[in-house]
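Researcher: Next sequence.
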Amino acid sequence: DLISTDVIVHFPRLVELNIVSEDVPDTLRLLSWIRCPILRIFRIVDPIFGHNGRQLDSEVLGALREFMDRSLPPLETLALVYRTLPDEIEMYGPLLRDLLRPLRSLKFLTLKGIIVDSELFEDMVFLDNLNEEDHLSLSTCPRLSGLLIAYELPIALPFRVAPQAVEKMIRSRMNTTLGLEKVELKLPGYRIYIWSYGEPLRNIQLE
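Model: Next structure:
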């Protein structure tokens, strides 16, 4: 187990951090005492991810947001691979959006087993009345190039992201210079959906 400490440990040259742990308390402690101001790649992964994996404590998303506020890194890649439950979407949805909103330099986002809602895609829409400079300062993840969201765990309670929200987000970004290049979705009630730059926008097919 990690030892608790009130001292913030500074890693001024760390550019990549991978936390592979099923021990949520240890992950919380680690996030609470590190500062990584030039971090560009960050992954948090449950090594036994799947139906028997440890459920992600909502505190981890809060601790991750505090870590980001403390470090202010130019993060380009974020991956969260953990198990969350659909019946807690009202809790995880706002926490996830709150985490992603300040990540202006993020280019690649991977969420596996993480519950998402329609509001996440609505937050990512580029509004027609904004220019590129406005998008960079006001939009969620404005530099996003690749997005992978997969929720393939057996679930008792179905959830569904509104297809219109996904399509509107892609359409708003597909012809901009900020460079959305690929979206891959594997969600309950969806057929696998993949869109790549240069392709026409297809309607999302529901099962």
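Model: DSSP finds six helices and nine strands in the chain. The CA atoms of residues 154 and 160 lie 14 Å apart.
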